[in-house]
């Protein structure tokens, strides 16, 4: 709560308070204005010298005014209980004539709501209290009424009074659903408001599902994607417009010690030394004389001594950043600016991690972060991967991960494990949550290293100091023989980013000892274990496994790999529920899946060495032209190897065979069938093709025109009274909304299984609830009568609006359920209608709402049929 105590006018609002203003990002005019405002309220300002970078007489201060927490004395100030506030705290305090709560104006990046001022509209009281409490806890502010200071109005509908007032007054604020704050809290970051913004929030649009927009490159990873920078830094010119005014100078009056494990040549060392001196600094030979220590790994006497002495410790990437921008920044602020652990993070050594939906710098950053943890990074996603890190779950890799049982996590798990120097539990809900319609790449790099965890793990006062391994002199590449293999990460072999590193590699020494095999990103390199006995055992195992290895390498040479691998589950048959799925063949574990997103592939190609460009273009996977769902085709039954080969060939042609009935372009079958996949996929308005389409594609090695292989449906159409081509026209009109606003009940023991009809109903925009004869927690409501345009789009002209449907079986055992169902309908003033499964199948296949008397069930009909 804010301090409401008014100070006497004679003392001024800031009487007996002392301030220092950090100049980073502030213009001269803004600095002068802040000093005048503080002095006008009897506050005192202790000058800050940017050339020194440190605050004089820190203990005497009451407040530090700074736009960010990125200044050298930030953590010292916190330890001394000194308030660090943004400049807006000064003006806000003056405007209300009382000192504001410093916490709501803190530049601490952990308080991710610090720039948010919310006002709640007409939302439930419990939700309002929870949101307001959460916003305050995360550094935000609450406004009881609308004002120019409000940044977010929380509402459920634009028709609310406050929404209309905000629109009429043209207030510069965002009107968002309460779901936005909920999702921010779930991931612990401030995510984009775009999918939650009224009047048409994307998260409520379950019908149209456009691709999730690619994330812009996060500012937090700019010039901080790799611990080993590739290019020599270029210092800014004196008139560089990118340099913040009056910024803390990086090297002014400071001494720098370059660590022995930096692995830079004498020529490059001389260049770096010259740049540091040009910036007003000096390079020294002993760490005791230095203010800044630069090294590669978190080990060695110099690293421990420098860290324990409170000196600035960073890696070469951080040093290059300081040279390039001539602005000081905390090396722990960005993951790739701080020396990495030579042995990685405990527990990651056995992991094989791939990433999805990240491009450009974000992809390079995560690739390096994976390697820094000690895990193996794989560009291609395989069945033997242990984890998939993704920005959202709308990708083929995520589909394959779900089938293969590979754990899918967001990047927060990876970042926070590295930040806290320990493997974080994958059961934490924050790491497996993906906000709808949100690309989490937007918040990439916002995690800072946990300084307490780093200190405890690597340079605690009672920690025994071990000597660092020194590389050979006069060399820009560490000889493999000079470092034990278990200490050698793949990205230490020269000053290269991991992507550029693929162009040139050196092999590790074969006789180096290691308790664990080294991890390399190049999947084609082999490294034998360390000891002679281990080598012999390894050779014997390789000899025994030679046939499998040959088969494996043959499979790996096939361009494109497979999309899913292994035999997929058979159709969920409505007519024959007893048919069981077949298991995957062992070959499935040897096949790989390449990400299909063109931007991701093209980004990687652009960062490859020039010599590989032609090969990269040649091997690039063909963009998907059609997504096809196949039902009741027997060509791959009990022949998993043929299925893998055929699907890989088809994928190379641009045809992706999928089981996802929510996103289908072509629906393939020998004839119209009543499998769950076929019926549910019709809601996509796909082109219906015969299995001859696949025959032609595989025979001619190219995709034929779909119109030449139209599905023959004459007999089916005569038996069911509608044409399939007309049904697809209606499906296109419906846009998955045929059953929008419908709640349809279904008994538990219905033929085909409850989940079958649930998927069909949900594919058409409706909701399916299991009926067990209990009404305590179930409600029902009438559907709104549609206007003419909506009736046409949803094809619901025959819907009475007040009919409540129950899908059931013609069985006497269901009579008790029917009686209870009628009670539910009567309670909600609706007409109960109990129907066979035939009703929903015909509605979904014909794509219009209708009902025939022959589909309706009653006790009399069941008794008569017996």
**Level-1 CATH class name of the largest domain:** Alpha Beta
The helical percent reads 25-40%
Please state the CA-atom Rg, rounded to the nearest Å.
Answer: 33 Å
Major sheet: arrangement of strands: 2-1-3-4
The CA-CA distance between the termini, in Å, is 74 Å
Alpha plus pi helix count: 27
Number of domains: 7
- Which CATH architecture of the largest domain would you pick? 3-Layer(aba) Sandwich
Q: What's the CATH topology name of the largest domain?
A: Rossmann fold
Q: What can be said about the biggest beta sheet? A: 4 strands, parallel
Net shape: globular
Please provide the count of β strands. Answer: 26
Q: Structural class given helices, strands, pairing?
A: alpha/beta
Beta percentage is: 5-15%
Mean pLDDT: 79
Q: Segments where pLDDT lies below 50 for 5+ residues?
A: 1-9, 467-488, 490-543, 552-612, 614-618, 787-793
The CATH fourth-level homologous superfamily of the largest domain: BRCT domain
């Amino acid at each position: 709560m804010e301090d409401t105590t008014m100070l006497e006018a004679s003392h001024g609002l800031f009487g007996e308070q002392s301030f220092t203003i950090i100049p980073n990002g502030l213009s001269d005019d803004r600095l002068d204005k802040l000093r005048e405002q503080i002095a006008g309220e009897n506050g005192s300002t202790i000058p800050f010298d940017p050339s020194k970078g440190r605050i004089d007489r820190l203990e005497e201060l009451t407040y530090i005014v700074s736009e960010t927490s990125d200044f050298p004395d930030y953590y010292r100030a916190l330890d001394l209980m000194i308030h660090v506030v943004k400049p807006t705290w000064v003006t806000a305090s003056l405007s209300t004539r009382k000192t504001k709560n410093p916490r709501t104006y803190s530049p601490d990046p952990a308080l991710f709501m610090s720039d948010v001022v919310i006002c709640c509209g007409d939302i439930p009281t419990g939700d309002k209290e929870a949101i307001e409490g959460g916003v305050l806890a995360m550094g935000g502010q609450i406004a009881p009424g609308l004002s120019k200071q409000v940044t977010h109005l929380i509402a459920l509908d634009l028709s609310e009074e406050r929404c209309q007032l905000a629109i009429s007054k043209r207030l510069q604020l965002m009107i968002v659903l309460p779901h936005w704050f909920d999702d921010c809290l779930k991931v612990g970051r401030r995510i984009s408001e775009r999918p939650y913004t009224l009047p048409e929030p994307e998260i409520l649009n379950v019908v149209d599902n456009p691709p999730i927009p690619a994330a812009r490159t996060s500012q937090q990873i700019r010039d901080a994607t790799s611990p080993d920078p590739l290019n020599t830094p270029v210092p800014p010119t004196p008139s560089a417009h990118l340099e913040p005014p009056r910024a803390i100078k990086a090297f002014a009056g400071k001494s720098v010690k370059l660590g022995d494990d930096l692995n830079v040549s004498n020529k490059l060392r001389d260049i770096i030394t010259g740049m540091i001196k040009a910036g007003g600094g000096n390079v020294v030979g002993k760490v005791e004389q230095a203010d800044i220590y630069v090294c590669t790994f978190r080990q060695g006497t110099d690293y421990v001594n420098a860290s324990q002495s409170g000196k600035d410790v960073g890696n070469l990437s951080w040093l290059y950043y300081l040279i390039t921008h001539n602005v000081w920044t905390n090396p722990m602020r960005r993951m790739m600016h701080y020396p990495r652990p030579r042995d990685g993070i405990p527990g990651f050594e056995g992991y094989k991690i791939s990433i999805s939906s990240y491009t450009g710098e974000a992809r390079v950053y995560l690739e390096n972060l994976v390697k820094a943890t000690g895990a193996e990074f794989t560009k291609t996603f395989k069945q033997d991967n242990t984890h998939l890190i993704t920005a959202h779950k709308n990708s083929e890799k995520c589909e394959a991960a779900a089938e293969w049982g590979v754990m899918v996590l967001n990047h927060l798990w990876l970042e926070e494990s590295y930040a806290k120097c320990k493997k974080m539990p994958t059961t934490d809900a924050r790491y497996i949550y993906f906000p709808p319609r949100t690309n989490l790449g937007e918040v990439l790099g916002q995690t800072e290293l946990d300084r307490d965890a780093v200190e405890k793990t690597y340079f605690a006062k009672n920690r025994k100091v071990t000597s660092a391994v020194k590389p050979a002199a006069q060399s820009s590449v560490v000889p493999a023989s000079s470092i034990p293999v278990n200490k050698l990460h793949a990205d230490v072999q020269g000053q290269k980013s991991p992507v550029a590193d693929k162009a040139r590699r050196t092999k590790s020494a074969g006789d180096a000892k290691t308790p664990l095999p080294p991890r390399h990103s190049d999947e084609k390199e082999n490294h034998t274990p360390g000891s002679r006995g281990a080598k012999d055992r390894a050779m014997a195992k390789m000899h025994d496994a030679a046939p499998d290895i040959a088969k494996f390498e043959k499979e790996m040479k096939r361009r494109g790999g497979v999309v899913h691998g292994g035999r997929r589950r058979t159709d969920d048959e409505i007519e024959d529920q007893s048919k069981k799925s077949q298991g995957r063949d062992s070959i499935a574990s040897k096949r790989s899946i390449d990400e299909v997103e063109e931007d991701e592939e093209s980004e990687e190609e652009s960062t490859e060495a020039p010599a590989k460009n032609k090969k990269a273009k040649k091997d690039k996977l063909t963009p998907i032209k059609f997504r096809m769902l196949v039902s009741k085709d027997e060509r791959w039954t009990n022949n998993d190897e043929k299925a893998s080969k055929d699907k890989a060939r088809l994928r190379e042609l641009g045809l992706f065979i999928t089981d996802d009935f929510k996103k289908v372009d072509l629906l393939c079958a020998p004839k119209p069938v009543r499998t769950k996949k076929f019926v549910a996929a019709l809601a996509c308005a796909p082109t219906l093709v015969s299995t001859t389409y696949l025959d032609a594609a595989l025979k001619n090695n190219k995709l034929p025109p779909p119109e030449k292989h139209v599905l023959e449906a004459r007999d089916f159409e005569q038996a069911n009274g509608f044409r399939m081509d007309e049904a697809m026209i209606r499906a296109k009109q419906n846009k998955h909304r045929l059953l929008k606003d419908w709640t349809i009940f279904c008994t538990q023991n219905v033929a085909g299984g409850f989940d079958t009809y649930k998927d069909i109903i949900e594919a058409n925009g409706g909701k399916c609830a299991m009926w067990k004869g209990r009404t305590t927690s179930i409600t029902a409501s009438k559907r709104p009568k549609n206007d003419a345009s909506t009736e046409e789009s949803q094809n619901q002209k025959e819907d009475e609006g007040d009919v409540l449907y129950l899908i059931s079986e013609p069985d006497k055992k269901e009579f008790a359920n029917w009686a209870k169902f009628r009670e539910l309908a009567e309670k909600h003033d609706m007409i109960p209608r109990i129907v066979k499964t035939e009703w929903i199948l015909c509605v979904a296949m014909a794509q219009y709402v209708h009902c025939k008397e022959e589909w309706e069930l009653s006790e009399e009909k069941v008794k008569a049929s017996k």
